[in-house]
C-alpha cells in the first residue's frame, strides 16, 4: 500500500486483545423482566394512589419549542393559592410544588389553576381512620366509587380555529404600515412632548 505526499505514516495496532475489552448485554431480557416486576410491585404497594405525581403544563424554551406544552417541575405558590390548596396539603395530595417558578403570563397561570381544580374534583382522599374522618377527607359515597390511577393529561397546546372568510376590514388592514407607525410614535414620543411643552411656554410668555 503506497502513501502519497508527505503525510504521517499509519501506526495501526491490529494485535490488541480486544476480546477482553468487549462488553456484552446477554442479560438484557432478564433485566427487562426484573424492571417490569419491580414496577408492578411498586404499583401494588402504592394502593389506590396515582401512579405519577401531578405536575404543571409549561411551554418549552426558545422559539423552536414554545409552541409545545410539556410537564414542568412543580406548581407555583400563586397557582396553588388561586386553586384553594395550601402548600403543605399539596405535598400530601401528590401535587409537586416549585417555589422558584414564576408566572409570566395570565394564560399560563389560568391553565394550571384549571388543571389543579380538575384534579381536586377527581381526587378521592381516604381517611387514616375509617371511623374518624377528618376535614378534607372524601365522603363515604366517594370512597366506594370506581377510581382511576392515571394522571390528568396535558391540555391541547393550541385551539384550532374553524376556517372562515376574511372580512373587508382585515383586507384593508396593513400590518407592516401599522407596525412602522407605532414604532415611530414610540421613538419620537419624548421629543414631541418636549417640543409641545416648549411651545406652551413660549405662548404663555407672549401672553405676559
Description:
It is a single chain. A two-stranded antiparallel sheet has the order 1-2. By secondary structure, the chain is mostly helical. It contains eight helices and two strands, in the order H-E-H-E-H-H-H-H-H-H. It has helices at residues 28-46, 62-65, 77-83, 87-92, 106-122, 140-144, 168-172, 175-207, and strands at residues 57-59, 69-71.
Please state the average pLDDT score.
Answer: 89
| Spatial ordering of strands, largest sheet | 1-2
The major pleated sheet works out as: 2 strands, antiparallel
Give the ordered list of helices and strands: HEHEHHHHHH
Distance between the termini: 104 Å
| Alpha-beta content class | mainly alpha
Uncertain segments of ≥5 residues (pLDDT<50)?
none
Helix content: 40-55%
Q: Any idea what the radius of gyration is?
A: 32 Å
* Number of E strands: 2
Query: What is the approximate shape?
Result: flat
- Give me the number of helical elements: 8
Report strand %: under 5%
Amino acid at each position: 500500500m503506497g502513501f502519497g505526499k508527505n503525510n504521517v505514516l499509519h501506526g495501526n495496532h491490529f494485535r490488541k486483545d480486544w476480546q477482553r475489552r468487549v462488553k456484552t448485554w446477554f442479560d438484557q431480557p432478564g433485566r427487562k423482566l426484573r424492571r417490569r416486576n419491580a414496577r408492578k410491585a411498586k404499583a401494588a404497594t402504592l394502593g389506590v394512589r396515582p401512579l405519577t405525581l401531578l405536575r404543571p403544563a409549561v411551554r418549552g424554551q426558545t422559539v423552536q419549542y414554545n409552541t409545545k406544552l410539556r410537564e414542568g417541575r412543580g406548581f407555583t405558590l400563586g397557582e396553588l393559592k388561586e386553586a384553594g390548596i395550601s402548600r403543605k396539603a399539596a405535598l400530601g395530595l401528590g401535587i409537586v410544588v416549585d417555589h422558584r417558578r414564576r408566572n409570566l403570563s395570565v394564560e399560563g397561570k389560568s391553565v394550571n389553576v384549571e388543571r389543579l381544580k380538575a384534579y381536586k374534583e377527581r381526587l378521592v382522599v381516604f381517611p387514616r381512620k375509617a371511623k374518624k374522618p377528618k376535614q378534607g377527607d372524601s365522603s363515604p359515597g366517594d370512597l366506594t366509587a370506581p377510581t382511576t390511577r392515571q394522571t390528568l393529561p396535558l391540555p391541547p397546546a393550541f385551539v384550532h380555529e374553524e376556517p372562515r372568510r376574511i372580512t373587508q376590514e382585515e383586507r384593508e388592514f396593513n400590518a407592516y404600515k401599522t407596525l412602522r407607525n407605532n414604532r415611530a410614535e414610540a421613538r419620537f414620543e419624548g421629543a414631541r412632548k418636549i417640543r409641545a411643552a416648549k411651545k406652551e411656554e413660549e405662548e404663555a410668555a407672549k401672553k405676559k
